[in-house]
Amino acid sequence: MSKTKLICTFLWIYIFCPIWSFIVNFLYWTFHIFHFKKAIKEKSNLKSKTINIRNIQSIMTDFEWKRDSLKDWAPWVITILDRNLQDDCDGAAVLGKFLLKSINIKSKIYHLVGKKGGHAVCISNDKKILISNNQVSYIIKNKAFNENYISKIMRDKWKIEVLKKFNYKYSKII
After folding, report:
1. Where are the alpha helices (DSSP H) in 32-110?
2. Which residues are within 8 A (CB) of 148 and not within 5 positions of it... i.e. 6 or more apart?
3. What is the largest CA-CA distance in the chain?
4. What does the pLDDT look like over 62-101, one tens digit per residue?
5. Among residues 35, 126, 110, 14, which one has the least CA distance to residue 80?
6. CA 106 centroid distance within chain
């Protein structure tokens, strides 16, 4: 991947996509305003019934991947719920982050990029849990994995494991 393309991708992910996502979500809710209260209640119910990783796995199996009809955007959790758990990988990553936060696991959304496109995933801050579309899996199954006590080489092992899970279709993690 060229340096120019990588910079453009970075700018899209961290500057332009959040702005575009806000606009699309705002417009979505402008035309679905009567669903808003129900979606807020559904989000609250989902948060309260999510108590462990198995709940998250169960919820994510109901997630259905659907191509964005507009330029790529990241929906809000209430938007995903109102759309019956249908969205692309951005939506799955947003939902995964919300669900992990519900059980007090901090996480971040990462973007895998390659020559033929990209993919958004949610990865726990301890680099153990990966949420991709409707799948929840463990990145490194070694329970002794602790970032505070391992070398830089081991700290980057999670990146290799994530890329391996996607058969090296992607070459960078942003």
Report:
1. 36-49, 53-61, 77-82, 89-102
2. none
3. 53
4. 999 998 877 889 999 999 999 999 999 999 999 999 999 9
5. 35
6. 12
H-type alpha helices, the chain: 3-11, 17-31, 36-49, 53-61, 77-82, 89-102, 152-155, 157-165
User: Do the Cβ atoms of 170 and 160 come closer than 8 Å?
Assistant: no
Scan for tokens 């092992």, then name that residue. Answer: 157
Q: What is this structure's pTM?
A: 0.88
Environment class of 126 (CB within 10 Å of its CB; exposed 0-12, middle 13-18, buried 19+): middle
């961290």: which residue's tokens? 14
**By mean pLDDT, which of 24-33, 107-116, 140-149 is the weakest?**
140-149
| CA–CA gap between residue 46 and residue 41 (Å, rounded) | 9
- The Cα–Cα gap between 119 and 111 comes to 6
Residue 78 dihedral angles phi and psi, to the nearest 5°: -65, -30
CA dist 14 and 160 (Å) reads 23
Total length of the chain: 174
